[in-house]
Amino acid sequence: MVAEDDLELGQLRLLEVDNRVVVPAKTHLRFIITSADVLHSWAVPSLGVKCDAVPGRLNQSSIFIKREGFIMVSVVRFVGQIMHLCLLSLKLFP
Q1: How far apart, in whole angstroms, are the C-alpha atoms of residue 93 and residue 91?
Q2: Which CA distances in Å does 89 have to 12, 17, 22, 72?
Q3: 86: Cβ contacts below 8 Å, ≥ 6 apart
Q4: Given this model, what pLDDT does residue 57 score?
């Protein structure tokens, strides 16, 4: 995450990172998801995909990314009655 003092004009606090995840565009992608500890929910609303990671189980999701650019991903971790939200940014390149 980029420190608040290092943000440039137009960057969002708590959402900017110094090392983005890069994913190829115009490609079929398959994600195989599991968890070692608690339930995790992985979602990319702008791509219409959501997948849950359940301990001891494999879950998969397939998508085809049509466009380039930056998108936001939300990851939620459920621990008992407590929910932790983590947002990250994906860079889609040609």
Answers
A1: 6
A2: 11, 8, 9, 5
A3: 74, 75, 76, 77
A4: 95
Nearest CA-CA partner of 64 in 31, 29, 94, 89: 29
Residue pLDDT, tens place only, 2-47: 788 888 888 777 777 777 778 888 889 898 999 998 888 888 877 8
Beta strand residue intervals within 36-81, DSSP E = 39-44, 49-53, 59-65, 69-79
Structure tokens at 37: 């500890």
Task: Tell me the domain boundaries of the chain.
Answer: 14-93
Coil vs helix vs strand at 5: helix
- For residue 60, is pLDDT > 90? yes
Confidence (pTM): 0.61
Architecture of the domain defined by 14-93: Sandwich (2.60)
